[in-house]
Design brief:
The protein is mostly helical. It has six helices and four strands. A two-stranded parallel ribbon has the order 1-2. It binds 4-nitrophenyl phosphate.
Length: about 150
């Protein structure tokens, strides 16, 4: 799960997906990172923490870290929140296989439509509610997809 700061969207995506994966009985390594190191070591934004707690997901222990090239070998899927995040991750890919792991997270819900998860950082709290719903829908699709492959 990759966004810009790794303090709003991708920590929410990590928490939401971990919760859905645990409930489904699937075993998977889920993590998140930012394309910047601006907030490295910081806990998620208070507004992200709050909305996740409201829906029963505790992301308070997460800490921001930058995306690195090693992530291409550690993970099978790299899901970017918006096109800028995807572009920045793709710029670090060294092989066609690495490039093939990268997509927009909302492709899981609306394939081919290039839907972005909007950055809620500058707006009012409403943005976080919308982001939560989008990410929960995407996480639900991903768990269903993995479940079918098993
Ligand atoms: P995120 O949100 O990419 O969803 O974690 C942002 C967090 C911080 C900044 C931008 C977006 N920032 O400019 O510091």
């Amino acid at each position: 799960m990759v966004c810009l700061g790794n303090i709003c969207r991708s920590p929410m995506a990590e928490g939401i997906l971990k919760k859905r994966i645990a409930a489904s009985g699937i075993q998977a390594l889920v993590d998140s990172a930012g394309t910047s190191a601006w907030h490295q070591g910081e806990a998620p934004d208070e507004r992200a923490i709050e909305i996740c707690l409201k829906y029963g997901t505790d992301i308070r222990k997460q800490r921001s870290r930058p995306f690195t090239r090693d992530d291409f070998s550690r993970f099978d899927m790299i899901l970017a929140m918006d096109r800028e995040n995807r572009r920045n991750v793709l710029a670090l890919a060294r092989t066609p296989e690495e490039r093939s792991k990268v997509s927009l997270i909302m492709e899981l819900v609306h394939p081919g439509r290039e839907v972005e998860v909007p950055d809620p950082w500058y707006g009012n709290g409403d943005g976080f509610e919308r982001v939560y719903r989008m990410l929960d829908e995407a996480a639900g699709c991903l768990v269903a997809e993995i479940g079918q492959q098993k």
